[in-house]
């Protein structure tokens, strides 16, 4: 598929670039863990990324969700319809997956900002990717945090809220990788900035918490970052956090658009 790019960021840990967001596949023997799953229109891309790694949807032992936004869970209803797989998210994220609360920039918010050329281009891309749909996954269960999960790669879920109330990162201690979702990104189609950074504030539910929650990442033993948006980043995660903080100095919050 045109948008699919697969990069092995560490042994058996693969970052896949979708239409406008990333997902991660962790392999252990024949078994796979899928972390996030792109937009609704990324369904074919997700399936072909598994195929490229020698797997099928039936080989995915569990899906881990960083947060309930459409660019991260969009293809999951399609996957679920093909083959039910246990799906896990933080328990504070489950109300959004059940459709009880909504912590995402609305289509109206986006349209109001479309005088910015980058935002207009991005909005067009994501609308075509199914980005205006609301994804409900009432079958998702609460993930247990802080200890290795019984899934390929032994991921450890860590609450890293702010972008959404239940945003979670997944640490892969054996591989030395942290999958940061939108808690820390390295680029976004609406921004010219590159390198470790916070996602534009317009997309974030609680920007002050998103800034302070970087402390969780700084503590981790990892030397590669797989973000929800932008390229992978290599180096101590503490340095990525320092760079993100330098990009958004404390006391001068990002400009509200
Ligand atoms: Zn995102």
TrEMBL record:
Protein origin, superkingdom: Bacteria
TM regions (residue ranges): none
InterPro entries named in the record: Metallo-B-lactamas, NDM-1-like, RibonucZ/Hydroxyglut_hydro
SMART domains recorded: Lactamase_B
Residues covered by the Metallo-beta-lactamase domain: 20-229
PANTHER family (UniProt xref): METALLO-BETA-LACTAMASE DOMAIN-CONTAINING (PTHR42951), METALLO-BETA-LACTAMASE SUPERFAMILY PROTEIN (PTHR42951:SF14)
Protein name: Glyoxylase-like metal-dependent hydrolase (Beta-lactamase superfamily II)
């Amino acid at each position: 598929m045109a948008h699919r790019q697969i990069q092995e960021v560490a042994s058996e840990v693969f970052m896949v670039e979708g239409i406008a967001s990333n997902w991660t596949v962790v392999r252990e023997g024949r078994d796979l863990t899928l972390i996030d799953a792109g937009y609704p229109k990324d369904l074919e891309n997700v399936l072909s990324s598994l195929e490229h790694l020698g797997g099928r949807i039936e080989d995915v032992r569990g899906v881990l969700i960083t947060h309930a936004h459409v660019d991260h869970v969009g293809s999951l209803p399609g996957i679920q319809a093909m083959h039910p797989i246990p799906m896990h998210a933080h328990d504070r994220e489950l109300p959004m997956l059940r459709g009880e609360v909504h912590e995402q920039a609305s289509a109206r918010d986006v349209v109001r900002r479309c005088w910015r050329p980058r935002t207009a281009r991005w909005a067009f891309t994501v609308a075509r990717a199914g980005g205006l749909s609301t994804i409900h996954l009432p079958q998702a269960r609460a993930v247990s945090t802080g200890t290795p999960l019984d899934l390929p790669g032994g991921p450890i879920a860590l609450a890293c809220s702010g972008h959404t109330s239940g945003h979670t990162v997944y640490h892969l201690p054996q591989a030395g990788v942290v999958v940061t979702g939108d808690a820390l990104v390295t680029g976004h189609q609406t921004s010219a900035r590159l390198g470790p950074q916070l996602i534009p504030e317009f997309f974030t539910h609680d920007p002050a918490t998103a800034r302070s929650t970087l402390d969780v990442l700084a503590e981790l033993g990892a030397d590669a970052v797989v973000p929800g948006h932008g390229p992978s980043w290599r180096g101590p995660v503490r340095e990525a956090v320092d760079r993100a903080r330098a990009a958004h100095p404390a006391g001068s919050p990002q400009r509200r658009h």
